[in-house]
Design a protein that fits this description.
This protein is an alpha+beta fold and 756 residues long. The chain contains 15 helices and 27 strands. The N terminus and C terminus are likely disordered.
Length: 756
């Protein structure tokens, strides 16, 4: 590090003043190579007080990268050094550490631009030369106004910041979660503003500014729709001269993974993924192609990038992207569309209470608009009012005062918004209104409460999951918070008022289309309890079939003569008069019979507690996994066996879920879907009754053969499977079940249901 002249070392240690540190990240020189090709893809992180405050862009394939990026950092303690860490970016894998260095802030001279050269070191290999980082820094005293402007700029400039206080949010590494963290930090800084400006009027003005910035920082400006069509002439990675390719996408914190196409160099995917676009100038989508290998790490095939700033909006672009560091290219369709359906406001600004706006929303989703913009199914408004009797996550002070700093995260599929933090309060009031655009009426609204911790990851306080079709409009309800697995209660309730307006025809059509994929959240893990639970679920499905076969067999054996005689006469009648339309007609009669049992109150099916017990046992195992995760290094060495077991575990889950969804369709678990099934079966019955089978098969065959000619980039789907994917399995029914409120708000006394 160069010499700085006069230092700030003589400043009082307890100096409460605020400082602004302007840092320009110039370049790197002779950085260590971490990739097989003898290069690196370096990026830089700045940390202050254990918190990440800046992350640079990635410069690909360069050991002498030039960044020329500027950032402003608010400093409240000059004794804490600025920690600089350099990494080699590896998409899909853990990034490689290149080196680190410290910048002593007390050595900087105030109001003087200083060029700094930092030599990178690795604590494990102190003698290795890992290269140098060049910076320009300027330390200046800060006041309330400068602090406000600094934080305002930081939202626009920084590409990444600290996000550790949202531990369960997937892939918190993009602009979005950086903004959320900055919002939290800015709310914290209002306390500093009070100390700097003891006038209430100034504090109120700043609070309003910060609240406004908090709202704007979360809202995306558009949707990027990417359709992965195919790959051509990809590189062969397996011994048989072929590959098992799949594709990973990343835009900020948003990540997707395509399906695996086995044994081909020209795969056909035809999958669609939607990204939120937060920056007006666009962004860059990182795309990597991998070869799936069972029992070892997947092979890298190639990469490419899409610069969204070069694409025009409201237009579909066909792109043929050649792969770097590999062979072949990908064919994609990319569409950028504007989005204004997501908003955050205070309770005083209510769209549905404004008669004019309400009429416009009702008109937009009226039956007359059923074929206009099929993807716009409905409108959701969520009022997050308050919570009561939350769990105390923090114990501070001489008197061991228990408190929490709660904030709320509201999620609908991949749409995520959050409230501000209410500090030191177990009964917080947020009084916020969130609005979402509904793309699938079978989505589930998730509201999660966290306790914010400045120095470590946030604590989970509770969660509720509410299917949109179960919502009663305009009713303020107290929802009992559940644990992470949604299997039992935890302490506290949250008060919500939810309104859903949707077009039933659009919702029905959307039901027969592929379900929206969620961001890649975490890799599937092997769980003994989960494996056992899926096995028991599949066993129940098989036993139901075995019971039916035994019942039919008993008719043949004349165990009950009256029953066998009735079955024999029914068999003769059906076979002699059988027509194809009788198949959907029989399913219609089964649905009608179950509906009659439910309406008449004669449905005496007992609640199956096996799934609930298994879920609770699984939660206990999750708690043990969290505590003992560092002691399971041996499992990591059994990667191949674990992957096979996870595959078996997932197959059992899919088989069991398929059977449970069929059962729940006929059991009227979701009335909307059962009525939709009745309409579809009625139409099929009429068609099969009046139209000869040969004509139906002819139309079906012509449609299948000409589909790719009429629409070469159509996404393949199976309407029946898409319909069943919306029906909840028994596990999901348990998770979405609304718990009754305890008048005392006391937590569950069963230890297994208490995540604390």
């Amino acid at each position: 590090t160069n010499s700085f002249g006069t230092s700030n070392a003589d400043f009082p240690p307890g100096d409460p003043g605020m400082y602004q540190l302007d840092v320009t990240l110039r370049k790197g020189q002779n950085l260590a190579a971490r990739d097989r090709g003898g290069t690196s893809d370096p990026y830089v992180k700045f940390k202050l007080g254990g918190k990440e405050v800046f992350r640079s862009k990635t410069v690909h394939k360069n050991l002498n990268p030039v960044w020329e990026e500027k950032t402003c950092i608010l400093i409240d303690n000059l004794r804490e050094p600025l920690y600089i860490k350099v990494f080699d970016y590896d998409f899909g894998l853990q990034d490689d550490f290149i080196g680190s260095a410290f910048l002593d802030l007390t050595s900087l001279e105030l109001n003087r631009q200083t060029d700094v050269t930092l030599s990178l070191k690795d604590p494990h290999y102190p003698d290795h030369d890992l290269g140098s980082i060049f910076l320009s820094v300027l330390l200046a005293p800060g006041d309330q106004r400068e602090a406000t402007m600094l934080m305002r700029k930081s939202w626009k400039r920084s590409s990444k910041n600290n996000y550790d206080f949202l531990p369960s949010m997937p892939y918190r590494s993009g602009n979005f979660w950086h903004r959320i963290y900055c919002t939290s930090k800015c709310i914290l800084m209002t306390v500093v503003f009070v100390s700097l400006n003891k006038h209430h009027g100034i504090f109120q003005t700043q609070s309003l500014r910060l609240s406004d910035l908090h709202r704007k920082s979360q809202l995306w400006r558009g949707i990027v729709s990417v359709t992965l069509i195919e790959g051509r002439e990809l590189k062969a990675m397996d011994a048989n001269g072929l590959s098992d390719p799949y594709v990973k996408f990343r835009l900020g914190h948003q990540k997707y993974k395509s399906k695996i196409v086995p044994k081909t160099l020209n795969p056909q995917w035809r999958e669609q993924f939607d990204f939120h676009l937060y920056e007006e100038r666009g962004g860059i989508i990182d795309i990597t192609v991998w070869d799936k290998d069972v029992g070892k790490k997947d092979d890298f095939i190639g990469r490419c990038q899409i610069d969204l700033s070069t694409l025009s909006k409201e237009q579909t672009h066909k792109l043929e992207m050649p792969l770097e560091e590999g062979e072949g290219y990908l064919v994609l369709l990319v569409t950028l569309t504007a989005s204004a359906a997501v908003t955050i406001s205070d309770l005083s600004i209510n769209s549905l209470e404004d008669q004019k706006e309400r009429e416009e929303i009702l008109k937009r989703y009226s039956p007359m608009m059923m074929f206009h913009n099929i993807s716009d199914v409905g409108f959701l408004q969520v009022k997050v009012i308050r919570a009561e009797a939350l769990m105390a996550a923090d114990v501070t002070g001489k008197d061991s005062f228990s408190k929490s700093d709660p904030f709320c995260v509201v999620e609908l599929n991949n749409d995520r918004l959050l409230t501000h933090t209410v500090y030191r309060n177990l009964n917080p009031e947020w009084n916020k209104i969130f609005t979402f655009n509904i793309k699938d009426i079978h989505s589930v609204l998730e509201v999660t409460v966290y306790d914010e911790d400045r120095d470590r990851s946030a604590d989970f306080l509770g969660k509720v999951a509410i299917p949109l079709l179960s919502i009663q409009n305009g009713e303020q309800k107290a929802y009992v918070l559940k644990n992470k697995q949604l299997t039992g209660p935890t302490k506290g309730v949250i008060y919500l008022e939810i309104d859903v307006i949707f077009n039933a025809v659009k919702a029905s059509i959307r039901t027969l289309m592929p379900k929206e994929q969620k961001y890649i959240e975490e890799e599937d893990r092997l769980s003994k309890q989960l494996l056992l639970r899926n096995f028991i679920r599949m066993k129940h499905c098989i036993m139901a079939l075995v019971t039916a076969v035994c019942y039919i067999s008993s008719c043949f054996d004349w165990d009950s003569p009256p029953r066998s005689l009735a079955a024999f006469l029914l068999f003769l009648f059906v076979v002699w008069n059988f027509e194809l339309y009788m198949i959907p007609l029989a399913l219609l009669l089964l649905l009608a019979w179950n509906y009659f049992l439910i309406v008449s109150g004669k449905d005496n099916r007992q609640h199956d507690t096996v799934v609930e017990d298994m879920l609770e046992d699984e939660e206990e195992e999750d708690d043990r996994d969290d505590k003992d995760s560092e002691k399971k290094g041996f499992m990591n060495r059994l990667y191949a066996i674990q992957e096979v077991c996870v595959t078996v575990q997932n197959i059992l889950d899919e088989i069991a879920s398929f059977g449970e969804r069929i059962k729940n369709t006929f059991n009227w678990t979701v009335p909307f879907l059962s009525w939709l099934a009745i309409v579809a079966l009625s139409v099929f019955t009429v068609i099969l009754y009046f139209i000869p089978l040969r004509y139906i098969v002819l139309v079906w065959g012509i449609n299948k053969f000409t589909k790719k000619i009429r629409n070469p980039y159509a996404i393949d789907n199976n309407e029946l499977l898409d319909f069943l994917s919306r029906v909840p399995s028994d596990v999901q029914v348990m998770q979405y079940h609304e718990l009754k409120q305890d008048p005392t708000h006391s937590p569950s006394k069963r230890k297994k249901n208490n995540p604390a």
